[in-house]
Specification:
About 40% of the residues lie in helices and about 15% in strands. The protein is of the alpha/beta class and about 300 residues long. The chain has a domain at about 1-155: Alpha-Beta Barrel (TIM Barrel). The protein has an 8-stranded parallel barrel with strand order 1-2-3-4-5-6-7-8, surrounded by 7 helices.
Amino acid sequence: MKTFKDAMRRGDFAVSAEIFLRPESDADSIREQAAVLKDVVDAILVTDNQYGQLHMSPLVAASLLLAIGVDPIVQVTSRNRNRIALVSDLLGAGALGVTTLLLAAGERAPKGFEPRPKPVLDLKATDLIRTAATIRADERLYQRPDFLIGGLVTPVSPGPRWKPAKLLEKIDAGAQFVQTHLCMNVELLRRYLRRLVSEGLTHKTSVVVSVAVLQSADDARWLKENRPNVMIPDDIISRMDQAKDPAAEGVQICAEIIRALRKVPGVEGVSIMATQDLTSIPRAIRAAGLGGGSE
């Protein structure tokens, strides 16, 4: 089975994609979505009730993917669990054979979510990364999980005195790769990566950029207005507004961004989400010149 971890360690341009996890998602829907993506990606990201959206446990989704030979990237967030529950989930991921973790604090539940859940946040994102690294190194375990550990970062346009303090903390805690929040601003990413390269940080961790296949201009506007840290330039929204076939334009835009990112020093992969149509992800990957999975 090809894995995201192997692609990253070989230095390939790694490709992952996110499936839809919803309250109504069942085992069959997970398998059906995996069938759409498995031939063109190195791994499939399963989220952890992202933005307060309820769905099955990411560990259950991961086990379904592993059973059909698909490598899952398992997101674990500290928003809803104390440290005992988090350690239990990390050990469970290792027992299942999960090879890659994406660890984060998690976002607050959206407005209108009733009854309001109480955020736990017993561990910060950096603490969670350090905990996973400790488990990976614990010689008392009969079988230590060789996790590839990732965290989240928000790209910025760095000023002369800017220092990547949060990124450094995550690297020191054990993050072997970082995945950006959704960012389709290539110029900003170039400036951000240029600084990371000059600071020598891309020798200490790998950078994966999150991009999206947009279905419409309304989808893009909704993401910008309702999801924190999403960066979609206005010119992309205008282009979607003016397109005769917005869905096809969304595929083309995503493909163009992926091609551009492959030329940015320090970018070692992409994570792709679709706003509505999962089949748009393979189309974007192929349009970008990536025939399937890592190079």
